[in-house]
Amino acid sequence: MTLLSVVKDVCAVVGVAVPQSVFSNITGNRTMQEMLSLANEMAQRIAYDNRDWTALITAGKHTGDGVLQGYVLPANYKRLMLTSNVRRSSNPNQPMTFVPDMDEWVTRTLRGTTYGTGDWRIHLNSIFYRPILALGETSSFVYVDKNCINLASGGRGDVFMSDDDTFVLDERLLKLGMIWQWKSSHGASYAEDLGTYGDALGYAMGHDSPAPIILGRKPISSSATVAYPWPVPT
């Protein structure tokens, strides 16, 4: 569904005139201004605030030059995943150590000390590495893409730019979210609509990634540990 299709459905439910376009003459159409603002807010809320959706997970990499300590984050970077690690190509089996405290980072820099696998931190939209990445050495990490809109003009963005743009995730979630939020913002009863949205969101989140394997011979991920590597007796 395009943005226009979603907005038409929302308008039909909340009782406002169904538009022929969202963007055409939008400067003189207060309702479509609200609809566009709501669509952008709800799309970003769904994409960023509930889980790390598989459709938005992407891999990043920096290649060292032997000189720089800090490397700018990708333009589409939103945040690291909760389970993200940063690994160096020279030691892929052990992640580097994140240093959250700036004072500790400065102290360790002045002392010239690092943890055994190396240190990293995010500051001023860049990732800093200690020791610096050697020439040709790479760092790898996984992050959430901020661009949750498929642009009809090509590529992705983080806001809707035309009637024909589409939401990267389930458009029904966007529609249901806009319905309850519109009603809430305009003083209408919205409890049932919020419940419908919550059910749909929970269902989508639950089916976004495979369920863990409870019985079997393979671990659920490379970080899992096999405590009993033989078939489970029955």
Characterise the protein shown here:
The longest helix is centred in the first third of the chain and has 20 residues, at 30-49. α3 (102-111) links the parallel β5 (97-98) and β6. The protein has helices at residues 3-14, 30-49, 102-111, 171-185, 191-206, and strands at 57-63, 70-72, 77-80, 87-88, 97-98, 119-123, 126-130, 138-145, 149-150, 156-157, 166-167. With 234 residues, the chain is of the alpha+beta class. α1 packs parallel to α4, α2 packs across α4 and α4 packs antiparallel against α5. The model has no long low-confidence stretch (mean pLDDT 90). The strands form three sheets. Strands 1, 3, 4 and 8 form a four-stranded antiparallel β-sheet that branches. It is elongated, with a radius of gyration of 23 Å. 31% of the residues lie in helices and 18% in strands. The chain folds into two domains: 3-51 and 169-205; 54-145, no CATH class.
Supply the key terms:
2 domains, 4-stranded antiparallel sheet, 4-stranded mixed sheet, 31% helix, elongated, alpha+beta
